[in-house]
Design a protein that fits this description.
The complex is a heterodimer. By secondary structure, chain A is of the alpha+beta class. Chain A contains 11 helices and 15 strands. The N and C termini of chain B lie far apart (54 Å). The chains are: A alpha+beta, B alpha/beta.
Chain lengths: 389, 211
Amino acid sequence: MSLMKPLDTCDEEQSRSRHALDAEHYCSNDSFRREQRELFGKRWIFAGFSGFLKEKNQFVAREIAGRAIVLQRTGLGIEAFLNECPHRLSKIQVESCGKRPLICPYHGWSFAERGALAGLPNEWLYNFSEDEKSRLCLRKLGVQVVGQLVFVNFSRHPEPIEKQFSSDFLESLAEFSSCLDDQIAYACFPVAYNWKLNIENVKDFNHVPFVHPRTFYPEMIKSPPPVERPSPIMPGLLASGFVPEIADLSYRTKASIQPRRMWFEPLIERFGSEDVYYNYFIYPNVNFCSVRGDHFLLQQYDPSGPGETKYHLWMMTARRKDKRTDFTALLRSLISGERYVIEEDAVYLNALQANLETTATPMVHGDYEVPLVNQHLWYRAHVLGEGRE
Amino acid sequence: MTAQRLLVVGDGSSLDTACRVANSLGLAVESVSLPSGDRFNFDLSGLIASFSPGDCEVFVALDERAVNFARNKLLADIGLAGYRLTNLISPSAALAPDVKVGRNLMVEDRATVGDKVTLGTGTWIGPNVVVGNNCRIGGAATLMGGVVLGRDVEIGRGTTIGTGLVLADGARIGRHCEILVPLPQSGFAKPIPDTYFVDSYFPWGAQVFRL
């Protein structure tokens, strides 16, 4: 008797019990629009570092899921607005960061705290009534600062950030990010795959030996498999109808790595003293991590289309002991090294995206992928709206 | 009067290039490879023990590593040790008569440098480079082979311009940048800020900010 079954039958049966999200959800315009509305339009999304916003009128301008925003230090602190003038929707801040008041460069409209209209050059040309003028303002967004991380929320009535992230997680994140130095390398570059593939990739530690055999993998300390094989989790999880809380999707880990002292360690106030890789997964689209607490990277996968992502990458050391120390060359080296590792991933994620565009075959997840599948289950319920009345 | 010895000191293939240019000038040259544990900090003790600063002139030959900070530092260390720095300009290079140059300038074969150009100390001009009139090149900058600069271009201290790149008239590049692939062209050319990097991995650019 042959153990071989017809391939399609075998795959179909097995896949259904270990599958949560379809290929189309990585490719379709419909999924992209739903994400813009139900996920990036309603939840707290990382937008930048408070270090760029120390002085009044300093700003950071960027896009989040295709919408232009500006973070601006006003007399009230850090505020966030849609980066569009209510007149002709021109951008108020054109550069990506700098120090400049909220003045539209197109026709000179200016705005004050809370986005209120402050100046209207050649006012007689517009002939606005006082009532009309009072309603011309920048669209204000919700802002929360956690340590040095600034989050924004597009919702007109944002839910408390404590609902999206546990208080323990927020407390830890604040402590972790408060030791960052203020000399920062930043880059943004395009990648040709869906943003979800990248947050899944960083949660998937099992790819490291195969994709990064000469870069990241030699740093890791391998843990042996358990002596007794545990009972399978995934089929039961998927059959149960379980939907995780959004706070469960953000968490932190620590993994032991090879002990090593970097040459710049005496020049910084290192975070902790362990030889570990600190990892913060900030749902939906941020991975914030540190190698031994001496240098840090924050990467954000910002969707610009169903199969296109803007990859934002920030790198910095722990705080320098002496501000005269210039880490330009070090940061250039670190961000280039990290970019090389990212490219190792991108080769396979680009190819994976290309497959997803043409297939309806279900993915099959192993038990170690529960964190990925939890994301999928939450996504199905809250982004795709499945299981609602 | 004692004839001065010419020492080429540094690391890597830049040493060979400098020796070749010195030989093409008919100069007798001694090459000194400096030891380093990290490719950035160089041990000068052997140099100092073997060569008295009063008896020799030195050319520092080092590539653009560490965003040219390494060459900048080595130039400073050599100067502090009391050595006099000299220039090496290939006989096949052509410099306009009114070019202002600092010390430790390298101009490789067939490079041409136009009128009223300023070249800072430690600048390295690769082969076949063309520098247009009125350009200002900061110290310890590197123009790799085949670079073409239009007129009135400013290149900041410690910046590298990659092989074969062309910068239009009036281009402004900040300090300690690496422009290794063509800059995106659209409308008005914007000045490139300090510590800005463009290469095949960062086609939209990367930047180090001091907040």
